[in-house]
Predict the 3D structure of the following.
Amino acid sequence: MTMKNTNKPKSQKVIPINKTKGIAGSKKGNTSERRCVGCRQMVDKRELVRIVRNTDGDFSIDETKKAAGRGAYLCKNADCVAAAIKNRGLDRSFKGKVPSYIYDGIAGKI
Ligand SMILES: [Zn+2]
């Protein structure tokens, strides 16, 4: 007994969504600012160092600012590094202890 069942109806509907331009035109398109964990101010990414923790739990300083994983930002100045150590901003951001070699690494880049 052979059953021919090639007439499967395709019921998947793809509805194109038209993105309407300019709904929120009030905000400036500058999204390159991130919060520094030291001074807690919004700073342009170019002025910041990104610290990243990858999925293995390893911390590193992300030169490209594109590495996968959880990231936190810090100004490239000694005050903010000191503030981050003092207020544990990085530890809080990562919900865990950030190893000291990271702070040393940042300090080496200032
Ligand atoms: Zn800062």
The first helix runs from residue 78 to 87. Residues 57 and 69 are 9 Å apart (CA to CA). The two ends are 78 Å apart (CA to CA).
